[in-house]
Write a structure and sequence with these properties.
Elements: H1 3-19, E1 75-82, H2 89-108, E2 116-123, H3 128-141, E3 146-147, H4 156-164, E4 169-170, E5 185-186, H5 192-209, E6 216-222, H6 225-242, E7 245-252, H7 259-269, E8 273-277, H8 280-293, E9 300-302, H9 309-315, E10 323-326, H10 336-348, H11 356-377, H12 384-392, H13 412-415, E11 420-427, E12 434-443
Parallel strand pairs: 1-2, 1-3, 4-5, 6-7, 6-8, 8-9, 9-10
Antiparallel strand pairs: 10-11, 11-12
Helix pairs in contact: 1-2, 2-10, 2-11, 3-4, 5-6, 7-8, 8-9, 11-12
């Protein structure tokens, strides 16, 4: 690992930890129709809060005596799991900040008259056993009404645990394939498989048009379940159709340091590019290790986990040309939706790092508020069943401009979920690194490698 990366990454992690100390809300009532006691924001606007159209209903099993099945007062408790410490904190903290910012905003602007949101989170450190402990605390002790936006490598055990408790997971981050098959999970997150197909197909076509169809792929894979899913899709589905080959695959841990050796191994295999399927810190260490030997330059692909400002600031100009996928409109695009999002997040967390997971958590929190608003506006009981019924009615959600055509009806693997993809590129042409939109939006179900054209893969 290059000497310039270690201390800088630690400094950023410390800064993110300090920035996480945002506003907290006590469990108190707000009078019907009255604004919260927080001072109004002078610059940001709330945008449309129009509720979805009515539609079909979805059932969930609720254990007798479970807490929070129906909201009878003014406070709506929403739970969240985030690795605020540990190896994935560089992703977990910004995601927490994005979600917390919108719940704060919803309370401040009284977006659901007479109701306020209490966002109760737990630091699971991205450890499966801790995730289970956190989920139990949020459900049994804190009595959350729903699980909301979260970021963690969810184990199937946690998803099953929440489902058995009859608690909807509205805002699930979408990276764990098991969650997408659950009838209690509502997400705008993109499943791994469409993201992989869209990215690799785009990259392959781009180089083919330049006269060099890539055949030899190297991969650096974090040893966690979602990353392994990416690799399985690459080897069994994508390269099988495109004619490429994974000539070298290296599995890494959060503590791996021998990245220069990995880069030399890739050089010996003469790879056309290295696909980075890791957390941001590991991606940064890899690019710095490759920079030390000068190979490869400008030939990196990355899954959505590295699409953060942190990656560019720590890897520097050597990351120029790196492309990644996004299931949301890139936050670097200047639109009313992205401008509003940045204004709201930085109102509460001025130093927040933007990027895919920050935006995903923000938009997911907004989705939770929209679903609550839908139930309340219809004069229905604010129950878990009615929350899922409201989600089942939504067949083309646009996240108020941040996503496109998402079907919220669970399970996402059957309804299609989010399969619209943008491609982003690291650009240093102005001297300072930034993510720019390179392509999209396009439908991953329409790319040539997708096994079930126009439809989701069978659950």
């Amino acid at each position: 690992m290059s000497s310039r990366s270690g201390g800088a990454v630690l400094a950023v992690a410390i800064a993110l930890t300090l920035a996480a100390c945002g506003p907290r809300f006590a469990d108190q009532a707000i009078p019907q129709g009255q604004p919260s006691t927080i001072a109004p924001a002078p610059t940001a606007t709330t945008g449309s809060t129009t509720a979805p159209s009515p539609g079909s209903t979805t059932k969930t099993t609720v254990i007798k005596g479970s807490k929070g099945n129906v909201v009878t007062g003014s406070v709506i408790k929403v739970g969240g799991l985030f690795p605020k410490s540990g190896g994935l904190s560089a992703l977990g903290l910004p995601a927490y900040q994005g979600a917390a910012a919108f719940f704060n905003w919803a309370n401040e602007k009284n977006l659901v008259p007479g109701k306020r949101f209490q966002f109760i989170t737990c630091d699971d450190q991205a450890v499966d056993t801790q995730s289970t402990t956190c989920a139990k605390k949020l459900i049994d002790q804190d009595g959350v009404f729903v699980m909301g936006p979260s970021f963690t490598p969810f184990s199937n055990t946690v998803i099953e645990q929440v489902d058995k408790a009859g608690v909807p997971w509205t805002g699930f981050d979408g990276i764990n394939t098991e969650g997408l098959a659950r009838s209690n999970v509502v997400t705008i997150g993109s499943p791994i498989e469409p993201m992989a197909h869209a990215l690799i197909d785009y990259w392959y076509d781009k180089l083919s048009r330049q006269g060099h169809a890539p055949k030899r792929v190297g991969a650096v894979v974090l040893d966690v379940a979602p990353a392994r899913t990416y690799m399985r899709e690459l080897k069994e589905e994508i390269c099988a159709k495109l004619g490429c080959d994974v000539v070298l695959e290296r599995s890494v841990q959060y503590t791996t340091t021998q990245y220069e050796t990995i880069c030399r191994d890739m050089q010996n295999k003469v790879v056309d590019a290295i696909w980075i399927i890791t957390d941001p810190a590991s991606a940064i260490k890899l690019m710095n290790g490759c920079q030390n030997i000068g190979y490869p330059k400008g030939r990196f692909l990355g899954q959505h986990g590295i699409y953060l400002d942190l990656t560019l600031s720590q890897a520097g100009p050597y990351s120029d040309g790196l492309i990644a996928n996004s299931g949301l409109l890139p936050d670097t695009e200047v639109t009313p939706a992205t401008t509003e999002m940045k204004s709201i997040i930085r109102r509460y967390f001025p130093g927040a790092s933007l990027g895919y997971f920050t935006e995903l958590a923000f938009a997911s929190a907004r989705m939770v508020v929209d679903l609550v608003a839908r139930v309340v506006s219809q004069g229905k009981e604010l129950s878990r069943q009615n929350m899922l019924a409201a989600a089942s009615a939504v067949t083309s959600y646009d996240c108020h401009g941040l996503c496109k055509g998402v079907t919220l009806r669970p399970p996402a693997c059957k309804s299609g979920g989010n399969h619209t993809v943008w491609i982003v590129r690291a650009d240093f042409s102005s001297g300072k690194g930034r993510w720019v939109k390179e392509a999209g939006p396009f439908d991953a179900f329409d790319v040539r490698t997708w096994p079930n054209p126009g439809k989701p893969k069978p659950c």
